[in-house]
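lol ok so funny story. i was supposed to be doing the assay writeup but got distracted and ended up predicting the structure for this chain instead. priorities right. anyway since i did it might as well share w the group, maybe its usefull for someone
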Amino acid sequence: MLANIEPAKVAVTDAEVKKFYDDAVTAQKEADKKLPKDQKPQPIPALKDISEQIKQQLTLQKQQAEVVAFVAALRAKASIETTLN
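and the output, tada:
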């Protein structure tokens, strides 16, 4: 099924990786504000250390969205007839 997905549609740009990282850092900092005073926040890894993992995750998300769209298109074209004997 992945053979039906155009590589350009699932390509992840550096800008997308950076936005994902920035959004995650912002969310983590907000969550850290709600921690009890005696609990230390988790360290946030540098973008350069996790950019490949983020790229993989975003690629998988795009692939899944393309598969869902492909299956929906197939269902829309399909003519399924159910008969009961």
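The helical segments are 7-10, 14-33, 47-77. The first helix runs from residue 7 to 10.
back to the writeup now i swear
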